[in-house]
Every structure is written in C-alpha cells, then in structure tokens.
Specification:
Layout lengths: L15 H22 L2 E2 L1 H4 L1 E8 L5 H10 L6 E5 L6 E6 L7 H14 L2 E7 L4 E6 L5 H10 L4 E8 L2 E6 L2 H9 L9 H12 L4 E7 L4 E6 L5 H9 L4 E9 L2 E7 L1 E9 L1 H29 L5 H22 L2 E2 L1 H31 L5 H11 L1 H21 L2 H41 L12 H13 L1
Parallel strand pairs: 1-14
Antiparallel strand pairs: 2-4, 2-13, 3-4, 5-6, 6-8, 7-8, 9-10, 10-12, 11-12
Helix pairs in contact: 1-10, 1-14, 4-5, 7-8, 9-10, 9-11, 10-11, 10-14, 11-12, 11-14, 12-14, 13-14
Length: 467
C-alpha cells in the first residue's frame, strides 16, 4: 500500500539543530520536574491498597470521597472508572493494614490498662502487635481492647499463656466499614428477586423478607447453609453484604450495602520498592542489549544515535506521566519497554535505508544521504505509525483504568519514537561521522625549514657540472 503517490524531497536534516535544541530543553525540563515533583507512584511501587467499589445507584466521585472521609478515611483518592452509568470507583490509600503508629500507641495504652505488660512491639510493616503480659490474659478481651482503640483485628494468635500476636485487619475492611451506610441503602426490586432466586439454589427457602429502611434481608431456610455461600449468593445479585448474623439454625439476618466490593489489591512498601528497582533495571538492560545489537549489525557510529533516541523516548513518555499525574506503576514500565522496542524498530528501518543509500551514492555527504533515506521510508513510517495509533485510539475510547493509561502513554511513545528516528538518531550519526572524518584527516604537517646557507651549497655542484 502506497500512502504517498509521489516521492517526497523534504529537507528533514536541515531542521535538525532547532529540533535538537527543543528536544534537549524538554528532556532537561522533564528530568528536573521528576526530581522536584516526583511521579505519582501507584500501589505497585509506593505500596498501599486499592479497592474497587460498584454502587447500585448513581453517585459522583466527589460524593464517594466525602463519604469515605466522613467514615474516617482521610488520606484517600477516588477515581471513577468505566462509563458514568456503571458507578464504579477506585479508592486508593497508603498502607496495607489498619495498623499505624498512632493506632499502635493508642492500643498500647489500652492494653496496659487491661493487664500489666512485660513486652510490647508493633510491627507496622506486617500489621502485627506483639504483646507479652505478666499474667495469663483472655485473647478475646485483648481483641476487643485493640478494636476499641480504632484498629480492626483479624485474629489474635496465642503463642503461649502470656504471649500474644494481634493481626490487624487489612485496609479493605476499614474501607468497607467506612463506606457502609445502614439505613440509607435502597434495595432494588430486581436485585431482591435475583437474590431470592440465588438463595433458593442453596436450599428450600421458608421465608424471604426485605426491609429497605434498615437495609436488611431476613431469611429462613429449611436447613442451615454455609454462611460464605449465602454471602456469595446475595453478592451475585449485585448487593453488597456488610454482615450476616445467624439468629437461629437456618435463620439469617443479612445487612446489605449500596455498593459491592469488586476487587482488592495491596502491595507492601518493601515489595513495592523492589518492584520499582527491578523495573528500572529491566529498562536499562533492554537499552544496553539493543545498543550492542545495533553496534554489531551496522557500524559503531550508529549505536550511540540509537541509544540516545531510546533514552529520549523513555524520558518523553515519563514526562507524560509527570505532567498528567497518572499513576506510575508496573503498567508504566511495560509502556516504556514497548516504546523502546517500537523506537528502535523504526530507527533500524531508517538505518537500513541509510546503509543502502551510502552504497548507492558513494561520495555524497552523509546529511544528503540521510535525507534521501528518510524520504524513501516516509510512506512506510506513516502507514506503520498510523495503524498502530488507530488501535490505540480504540483503546482510548473504550478502555478504562490502566488500559486507558497504557493506550495514552503508548500514543505519546509512537509520536516521539517516530520523531527521534529522524531528529535524534540521525543527527547524532552525522556528528559522529564528521568527528571521525576530522580525526582521520588529522592536522596538516608544517613545512620543513631549510638550514641557513643551504641554497648556496646546493648551487655549487650545478656550477661545477656546468664547467
């Protein structure tokens, strides 16, 4: 397929100096910006918890944020995902467990009031409270005391009669507790019917009643069923489940919420730091390997141009994350690696054509040869970049969340990757070629000075020969 019917003769290389100047300024600005403002690190790298909630009614991100803050979640960011009518949101917060330094101090004070302690150590990274009491204590009393101090407790492990380990609940429990609104949930009739149908699959239903004012479902089955199976049956109907109480054998009181917890992701701070370091090293290793490949396939003077072009593209894509404040996470590393691969692919196509033209037009200046090569590959570049960009536009229109971030960053990468093949890699190759030519040519040797009177000495034999 031929995009350009006639061969072009655009002087790309003639504009290399202003292009290099603009690129240098942008790259330096991005590097300084990263050093000052930092990336908006995602949970993958910074550590923390991400909870996806889906509401059964229309609600805005601002209302979700206010509701979370009213429930005690002050340091939380809310992002809407998907279409507006889906009412789905991502809640991001630092920390993996509910255990904080302030909470640990409050728990210590409460526990010392409960029983004399011989040892107390809060492990904030792992969400553990290591408690040693002077005398034997009740594990249930320890759990209630810690929960009263504002820390959710998953379990209390009894190591010995006087040694206990309190495991703090995850942040998702705190999110669920903060976002739950008893008395404000409206149970849709369709959801209630679907929940009743789902419960019937578990066993024979004797009674099924809904109280919208209290956001409760009262169930009675002929035989007792598994509580977790009952929870899943109600959730599959699109209702969130806050609590299930077994009031009698086969009788249950289900408190529902107006949202459903879709997923929970969390990464510890140490793991996040390791992922960040390994992601950066993967990017560096990829660039070095590509540099070696280009240097061996072509000529050494082509290698540095390809490397600088790759670094330029990676910095420009990083600039997109810096300016847009989109989360920089493992998906971002995948984008950078993909952009580096795309950039070097486009650069190699141009380099191949340059090598062919150098053999065809021997003696022509390298800038003219590069101009011919770039114009010859222009149709192919437009076609390849355009088709790739079209697929990304589709992801931008229909994608959500991390998929949208990936597509937007890749679109930036395609543009700068195509640009760098012409205005970064090629000019650096010209500079190295001119530098090598000056070295090979070397300085002109100074003319030797003849010693004084040498002209007279040289003339004597000629005079003798004339006689």
């Amino acid at each position: 397929m031929q995009i350009l019917k006639n061969k072009t003769n655009i002087d790309f290389i003639g504009k290399r100096r202003p292009a290099l100047f603009i690129s240098s300024v942008l790259n330096l600005s991005i590097i300084v910006g990263i050093a000052i403002f930092k990336f908006n690190w995602g949970v993958d790298f910074a550590g923390g918890t991400v909870v996806e909630l889906k509401f059964d009614h229309s609600i805005s991100a601002e209302d979700v944020r206010k509701r979370a803050q009213a429930g005690g979640l002050q340091d939380v960011s809310v992002q809407g995902i998907g279409a507006a009518d889906e009412n789905s949101f991502l809640l991001r917060m630092g920390g993996v467990t509910q255990l904080t330094k302030e909470g640990a101090d409050a728990a210590e004070k409460a526990l010392r009031a409960l029983a004399p302690l011989t040892f107390y150590y809060p492990d904030l990274d792992n969400g553990l409270l290591n408690v040693h009491t002077q005398d034997k204590a009740d594990a249930q009393a320890i759990q209630k005391t810690v929960e009263a101090s504002g820390i959710g407790v998953k379990e209390v492990r009894v190591i010995s009669p006087t040694e206990y380990q309190v495991v703090a609940s995850g942040m998702e429990k705190k999110v669920y507790a903060a976002m739950s609104k008893s008395g404000a949930t409206v149970i849709p009739a369709e959801a209630m019917q679907q929940a009743q149908a789902n419960v019937k699959r578990l066993g024979e239903v004797v009674a099924f009643n809904a109280d919208p004012a209290k956001a409760e479902l009262t169930l009675e089955l002929k035989a007792a069923v598994d509580v977790e199976a009952l929870r899943r049956a109600v959730q599959d109907a699109g209702l969130g489940v806050k609590e299930i109480q077994t009031t009698a054998p086969g009788k249950y009181l289900v408190t529902v919420t107006d949202f459903l917890e879709q997923r929970v992701d969390y990464v510890g701070p140490q793991v996040g730091q390791q992922l960040r370091n390994k992601g950066i090293m993967a990017l560096i290793y990829a660039m070095v390997a590509i540099l070696v490949y280009v240097a061996f396939r072509f000529d050494f003077k082509f290698g540095p141009g390809a490397l600088v072009a790759m670094v330029h593209d990676a910095i420009m894509v990083a600039g997109y994350y810096l300016v847009s404040r989109r989360e920089f996470n493992l998906t971002s590393i995948a984008v950078l690696l993909t952009v580096v691969g795309y950039s070097i692919n486009d650069t190699i196509v141009v380099y191949d054509r340059i090598r062919e033209e150098m053999a065809r037009y021997k003696g022509k200046p390298l800038p003219e040869i590069i101009n011919i090569a770039v114009n010859d590959t222009l149709s192919r570049t437009i076609l390849t970049s355009g088709v790739t960009a079209l697929s990304l536009v589709g992801l931008l229109i229909f994608g959500v969340g991390e998929i949208w971030d990936f597509a937007a960053a890749m679109l930036v990468g395609i543009v700068v990757g195509t640009y760098s093949s012409v205005y970064i890699a090629s000019p650096l190759t010209i500079w190295l070629d001119e530098r090598q030519a000056r070295i090979d040519k070397g300085p002109k040797p100074a003319p030797k000075k003849k010693p004084a009177g040498s002209d007279k000495v040289d003339k004597l034999p000629r005079i003798a020969a004339a006689r």
